[in-house]
Automatic annotation (TrEMBL):
GO terms for biological process: sulfur compound metabolic process. One of its GO terms (cellular component) is cytoplasm. Signal peptide: none annotated. The lineage of its organism: Bacteria, Bacillati, Bacillota, Bacilli, Bacillales. This is Taurine dioxygenase. Residues 42-297 form the TauD/TfdA-like domain. Keywords: Dioxygenase, Iron, Metal-binding, Oxidoreductase.
């Protein structure tokens, strides 16, 4: 039982064997926030909970403060927003991202025209590593806060990306699980994801650059204040304070919450489409079903702050 900042992890936790199949809590807005219209562009929802297209913004042009603020509100309310028919350059992509802060340089993924751009060229010869539910770069002490992906070339079919609302995943957990995980932390590590492409010397160097990160299992969202699940199948390896078996069992249960379709939106790419998502409010999954066709994309990510727990 939770007592202040103390969580009793000595007693065994009963992990539900079956997911609850009744009515789910699908709360798009934080408590106390009322729906209000957008004045400067049109918002087209793609699901009741998460994901909306933005119509009427040309990203070739610098953003005014008013448009930037309204886009930020749309991002917080919908968690991932999409733009179509945006024939922007890499420089314009970078400039758009910098509206939200300093851009991240990814240590392991291939660069585009700038070190701040990750370029994904996927065909039958490429290794797929995004077809797993994940948040971006949680192996960092300060993971990416937002990510902006521009797909330049799409396959004729397939290659969709899905996003899941991690606040909804938390909202629908059994009360006993919530009580147990609020206040716990987990270890995040890149080694099993990117370490295989490094030799022994390189691995030692990057492990020194990016030592294991310890983040709360449940974070308080920095803008909305909502409790949000913050463990992912790609980088989260252990819950601190639990033995290996209980940690693995609990993590697998928490990972499975992201798979529930009611919490998801699925986006079908077209050439020159853009997705802009909140990495502290979502996980995403890039479907690898289009080989030997080609998909080419470029991504920038905005450096975030250190995640804060709920206790």
């Amino acid at each position: 039982m939770s007592k202040g900042n103390y969580v009793d992890i000595s007693r065994p936790l009963e992990i539900p064997r079956n997911r609850y199949t009744g009515t789910r809590i699908l709360r798009r807005l934080p408590e106390g926030v009322e729906e209000k219209p957008y004045r400067l562009f049109q918002v087209k929802p793609l699901s009741p909970l998460i994901g909306a297209e933005i119509i009427g913004v040309d990203l070739r042009n610098p953003l005014t403060a008013e448009v930037k603020d309204e886009l930020h509100r749309a991002l917080l309310e919908w968690k991932v927003i999409f733009f179509r028919n945006q024939q922007i350059t890499s420089e314009q992509h970078i400039a758009f991202g910098r509206n939200w802060g300093e851009l991240e340089v990814h240590p392991f993924l291939p660069e585009g025209d700038s070190s701040e751009i990750v370029r994904f060229t996927k065909d039958k010869t490429a290794t797929s590593y995004e077809n797993i539910w994940h948040n971006d770069t949680t192996f960092r002490q300060t993971p990416a806060r937002f990510s902006i992906l521009r797909v330049i070339k799409t396959p004729p079919f397939g290659g969709d990306t899905l996003w899941a609302d991690t606040a909804a995943a938390y909202d629908n957990l059994p009360d006993e699980i919530k009580e147990r995980i609020d206040g716990l932390t987990a270890i995040h590590d890149f080694t099993h994801v990117f370490g295989h492409q490094l030799n022994e010397e390189e691995l030692a160097y990057w492990q020194a650059e990016f030592p294991i990160a310890e983040h709360p299992v449940v974070i308080k969202h920095p803008d909305t204040g909502r409790k949000t699940l913050f463990v992912n199948q790609d980088f989260t390896v252990k819950i601190v304070g639990l033995d290996e078996e209980e940690s693995e069992e609990l993590l697998q249960f928490l990972f499975q919450q992201i798979h529930i379709p009611e919490y998801q939106v699925r986006f079908k790419w077209e050439d020159n489409s853009i997705a802009f998502w909140d990495n502290f409010a979502t996980q995403h999954y890039a479907v690898a079903d289009y080989y030997p066709n080609v998909r080419i994309g470029e991504r920038v990510a905005i450096i975030g702050e250190r995640p804060v727990g709920v206790k």
